[in-house]
Design goal:
The complex is a heterodimer of chains A (111) and B (112). Chain A is mostly beta strands and 111 residues long. In chain A, 0% of the residues lie in helices and 52% in strands. In chain A, strand 9 and strand 10 form a beta hairpin. Chain A starts with a strand and ends with a strand. Chain B contains no helices and twelve strands. The radius of gyration of chain B is 13 Å and the shape is globular. Chain B starts with a strand and ends with a strand. The chains are: A mainly beta (111), B mainly beta (112). Chains A and B meet through strand 10 of A and strand 5, strand 6 and strand 10 of B.
Chain lengths: 111, 112
């Protein structure tokens, strides 16, 4: 059974049109992560939540925001997507400082 | 600053052959080391991890890895590769409360 679920699997949006990606986990892990992965590259950490504490990576663009309303859910908001934001977005959860369980990702395309 | 290198961008092996994927790290503290696998269009799956103790770690899908502190390496091995092992493999290093860093990945192709 899937433990980290990302919706949708594929998302198409228009240049500059806000988009929200969602993630849920059934493991009750206290840390949730959002990664951006471009083709043939390693995942790049955007931010993570330790419980409700939000931790933004220094080079994450202001265009990217996140919300974690409860332990199970986490959202990635891209306020004004640009062509360079087309990528796979991976959600993960874990305990103790490293991501242990990943979702299958949302592939975002920008028209 | 911590870093991870995976010297081989792409490796091709024949089905049934043995496999070794290389990983070297640079880390100031005692490292926790990880290997993940990513099949096309999917997320990452944790294969194995090393925190402390026995330097030979067993993982899922028949993989193992050996931590060698003197060489700053954590190479992944499998004695006999299956076609379903074709994927991207990422080594990663972190520590409790410290930044977690992925290597650039090694793409594995398997010949029938």
């Amino acid at each position: 059974d899937a433990m980290v679920i990302q919706n949708p699997r594929y998302q198409v949006t228009q240049f500059g049109k806000p988009v929200t990606l969602s993630c849920s986990q059934t493991l009750n892990h206290n840390v949730m992560y959002w990664y951006q992965q471009k083709s043939s590259q390693a995942p790049k950490l955007l931010f993570h939540y330790y419980d409700k504490d939000f931790n933004n990576e220094a080079d994450t663009p202001d265009n990217f925001q996140s919300r974690r309303p409860n332990t199970s859910f986490c959202f990635l908001d891209i306020r004004s997507p640009g062509l360079g934001d087309a990528a796979m977005y991976l959600c993960a959860c874990g305990e103790g400082g490293q991501p242990q369980h990943f979702g299958d990702g949302t592939r975002l395309s920008i028209l | 600053a911590q870093s991870v290198t995976q010297p081989d961008i792409h490796i091709t092996v024949s089905e049934g052959a043995s496999l070794e994927l290389r990983c070297n790290y640079s880390y100031g503290a005692t490292p926790y080391l990880f290997w993940y696998v990513q099949s096309p269009g999917q997320g990452l799956q944790l294969l194995l991890k090393y925190f402390s103790g026995d330097t030979l770690v067993q993982g899922i899908k028949g993989f193992e890895a050996e931590f060698k502190r003197s060489q700053s390496s954590f190479n992944l091995r499998k004695p006999s590769v299956h076609w379903s092992d074709a994927a991207e493999y990422f080594c990663a290093v972190g520590s409790y409360g410290q930044n977690f860093v992925f290597g650039p990945g090694t793409r594995l192709s398997v010949l029938p």
